[in-house]
Amino acid sequence: MTVSLRLVPPIARVSGKGQRWAEARTGGLLALPAAVYFLVFWLVPFVVAVYLSFTSYDLAGTPEWTGLANYRRMLGDPGFWNSARVTAAYTVGSVVPSIVLGLAIAVPLSKPGRYNAFLRGLVMIPAAMPLVATSMVWSVIFAEKGLANALIGLVGAEPKPWLTDEGLALWALVIMTTWKHLGLFVIILTAGLQGLPLSVFEAAELDGAGPVRIFYRITLPLLRRTLLFVLVIAVVGAMQSFVPAFLLTKGGPAGATEVLPLYLWATGFGFERMGYASAIAMVLLVAMLALSLVQFRVLRGGEDG
């Protein structure tokens, strides 16, 4: 007589429809915390900001509907246009060198090397540091007797008032921002370079193409998607940068470093014109979306056609 021992209890069969419902319910429960976070901290504040941008609101009373008054006011506000100009200069000044230097460093680091893994970890240290701590460190570096003046003193230059001179303060922020984000861009570009097909480069070398021609004709076109990603996050990050200008210069001297996020904060919480500040936020958002769309069109143009 044969005895069958069942060590594992039989699994109840679930119909296809019931199984799909169970999976959907489990997925919904897992996504619920993220959905609540998005709703409470992103969607609701966005809808409120859109509404407030059409009102006059001073944080104390009740919002009063004013239509497009805040947007019309913006057209004649010299403070807004100064901040827009400063933001544009800060964005270009920090994004261009960050990407160019990042690519220059990523190319050798993407190749096999004994110390390249260590060097990739080393360049990520600035990006891993908290932004507030980084800003405080650079405020000491740019002080009258700080490291920046000590270095230029080695070549016989006079000490510079980095954070109090109208012509230098913005570029001091640019230097700090470039140093802060360079490591992140290096890692992203290195990963993109390492994912490129080696067969294409080997074929180009067999055809007699030199390193410069290979870089401009093969590497850059193949790296287009990675460059697009880096460019978008760099531009958006620069346009909404607030902490460096707030901690290092407070927007001074004479508004030379008052980027739009800082002007928005001062308008909303300093002067309690929350309706006008919301309108500035909407314009900044539209500008970031428009620039991102332009970058997508330019860098992705011709990929599929």
Describe the structure.
- The protein is mostly helical and 305 residues long.
- The protein has helices at 16-52, 69-75, 78-109, 116-123, 125-128, 131-141, 147-153, 169-194, 198-206, 211-222, 224-239, 243-248, 260-270, 274-300, and strands at residues 55-56, 64-65.
- A two-stranded antiparallel ribbon has the order 1-2.
- It is globular.
- The model has no long low-confidence stretch (mean pLDDT 87).
The profile of the biggest β sheet is: 2 strands, antiparallel
* Overall shape: globular
**Which class best fits the helix and strand makeup?**
mainly alpha
Poorly predicted runs: none
Strands side by side in the biggest sheet: 1-2
- Helical residue percent? 55-70%
Number of helices: 14
Supply Rg. 26 Å
Termini Cα gap: 73 Å
Order of helices and strands: HEEHHHHHHHHHHHHH
Mean of all residue-level pLDDT scores: 87
Strand content: under 5%
Number of strands: 2
